[in-house]
């Protein structure tokens, strides 16, 4: 399972402004293989999420797109709307960073969890509900059967995020884009979600594009890393090479910042334990 599955070549996303053209993504190229997790890492505003929206063909109307994108040899950049809708969900799925803007507020969770299975896999509705319940159970949602009859506004932010993850995983897409998938989740659920992503790539051979600013998440789950800054990819490599021998100053700064925060949290935890025992 080493062949290239997602190919992005010379991708640029620009926006017209009063002072000229702004490049949110500036001529980037990368590949994602089957059975691999590629982490796209960088600070807020580096172009990570805009890259994912370009791949999904969900860019704002004002955006201008340049470059080529192919999935398993099929070029998708030029597909019309109807054919692109066939690709989304079944061949390429996405876990969005903010689930409240992605879930339909007027539809029950059950409808939103099952519509992809019914459309793409021609699954009977009752069977789709069973699959949805199993997926919700996999992401740690208690009493998933009753959750199907609730609306998104009935759920907490963390619960909505888990619903989005479960919905994406039900179709087992060849490519899954996970945009900050552990945002708003507690530590236990974070670990559970990351395990699910690893399981998706291991058991189903999916390629996962993991978008994150969290170096700890990268170290725990990724196989390779592409570091973005100012719309460009400044460094790529295996997770081991990037974390132990970074070449670019920006990458070194990201890792140093993470280690500083990690040390501070360990120290605070240790001081709290000493305070409780004194």
Automatic annotation (TrEMBL):
<keyword id="KW-0472">Membrane</keyword>
<dbReference type="GO" id="GO:0005524">
    <property type="term" value="F:ATP binding"/>
</dbReference>
<dbReference type="GO" id="GO:0005886">
    <property type="term" value="C:plasma membrane"/>
</dbReference>
<comment type="similarity">
    <text>Belongs to the ABC transporter superfamily.</text>
</comment>
<keyword id="KW-0067">ATP-binding</keyword>
<dbReference type="Pfam" id="PF00005">
    <property type="entry name" value="ABC_tran"/>
</dbReference>
<dbReference type="InterPro" id="IPR003593">
    <property type="entry name" value="AAA+_ATPase"/>
</dbReference>
<keyword id="KW-1003">Cell membrane</keyword>
<dbReference type="InterPro" id="IPR027417">
    <property type="entry name" value="P-loop_NTPase"/>
</dbReference>
<dbReference type="InterPro" id="IPR050388">
    <property type="entry name" value="ABC_Ni/Peptide_Import"/>
</dbReference>
<protein>
    <submittedName>
        <fullName>ABC transporter ATP-binding protein</fullName>
    </submittedName>
</protein>
<keyword id="KW-0813">Transport</keyword>
<dbReference type="InterPro" id="IPR003439">
    <property type="entry name" value="ABC_transporter-like_ATP-bd"/>
</dbReference>
<keyword id="KW-0547">Nucleotide-binding</keyword>
<feature type="domain" description="ABC transporter">
    <location>
        <begin position="8"/>
        <end position="255"/>
    </location>
</feature>
<dbReference type="InterPro" id="IPR017871">
    <property type="entry name" value="ABC_transporter-like_CS"/>
</dbReference>
<dbReference type="GO" id="GO:0016887">
    <property type="term" value="F:ATP hydrolysis activity"/>
</dbReference>
<dbReference type="GO" id="GO:0055085">
    <property type="term" value="P:transmembrane transport"/>
</dbReference>
């Amino acid at each position: 399972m080493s062949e290239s599955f997602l190919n992005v070549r010379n991708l640029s996303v620009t926006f017209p402004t009063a002072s000229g053209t702004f490049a949110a993504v500036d001529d980037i190229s990368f590949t994602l293989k089957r059975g691999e997790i590629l982490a796209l890492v960088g600070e807020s505003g580096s172009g990570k999420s805009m890259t994912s929206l370009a791949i999904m063909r969900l860019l704002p109307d004002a955006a201008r797109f340049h470059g080529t994108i192919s999935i398993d040899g099929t070029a998708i950049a030029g597909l019309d709307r109807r054919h692109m809708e066939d690709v989304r969900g079944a061949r390429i799925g996405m876990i969005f960073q903010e689930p409240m803007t992605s879930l339909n507020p007027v539809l029950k969770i059950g409808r939103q969890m099952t519509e992809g299975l019914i459309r793409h896999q021609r699954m009977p509705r009752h069977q789709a509900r069973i699959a949805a319940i199993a997926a919700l159970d996999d992401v740690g949602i208690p009493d998933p059967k009753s959750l199907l009859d609730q609306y998104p506004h009935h759920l907490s932010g963390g619960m909505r995020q888990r619903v989005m993850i479960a919905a994406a995983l039900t179709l087992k897409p060849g490519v899954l884009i996970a945009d900050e998938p552990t945002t708003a989740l507690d530590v236990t659920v974070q670990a559970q979600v990351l395990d699910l992503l690893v399981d998706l790539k291991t058991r189903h051979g999916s390629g996962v594009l993991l978008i994150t600013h969290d170096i700890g998440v990268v170290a725990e789950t990724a196989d390779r890393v592409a570091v973005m800054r100012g719309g460009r990819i400044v460094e790529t490599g295996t997770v081991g090479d990037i974390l132990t021998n970074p070449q670019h100053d920006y990458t070194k700064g990201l890792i140093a910042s993470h280690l500083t925060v990690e040390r501070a949290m360990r120290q605070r935890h240790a001081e709290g334990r000493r305070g409780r025992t004194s």
